[in-house]
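Re: the 210-residue chain
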Amino acid sequence: MNRLKDLRRQRGMSQEDLGSLLGVQKAAVCKYEVGRVPLPNDVLVKLCDLFDVTSDYLLGRDEMVTPLFKQRPSLPAGFLPVEGAVGVPLVGRVHAGLPMLADENISEYIPVPACDVVAGEYFYMEVEGDCMEGEFIPEGALVLVRVQPGVENGRIAVVRIGDEVLLRKVKLMGTSLMLIPANMRYEPMIVPRDAAEVIGRVVEVRIRGL
């Protein structure tokens, strides 16, 4: 049994409220909740985004938050535990080649309030380049990424195309994706969906020193 009903009630939403957000009738929400109708992929993505949970958690496959790294290495000597916080790994760089999401590529752990990273997998990446400065994401900023295989229109995501990783606003166009920069110096890219892999959605931007 999926957790849709529980998540909806935790938010104080009625089936009509949720149906309105999803663009479906109350009857469809009822069928989703009792499992009479499987959740369509586009609805699943919307629900994960709305409730900020993974698809596995929503579908009842996970009982708790799943860490991005199954076996974390010991924390670096410079990491100081913060009460009520967890250490989110900083790995790789955006637009700097293939991001290596592996233990040996963790440069540090960044403390984040535990309540901000529930029911999901998260990591930080450092931004390279000025493609998204119009969204107040300058070069050198750290973006907190929630791992998920898809995003809604207009969301900023980390997307992998071949051996390159890009930070772009994503627009869905049938069987294609438009990857939109936030800098007039750069042109949008349109690529087939099967040629691009959405790694995750940006949920926070952190500027060092601020």
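Residues 85-206 form a domain with the Umud Fragment, subunit A fold (CATH 2.10.109.10).
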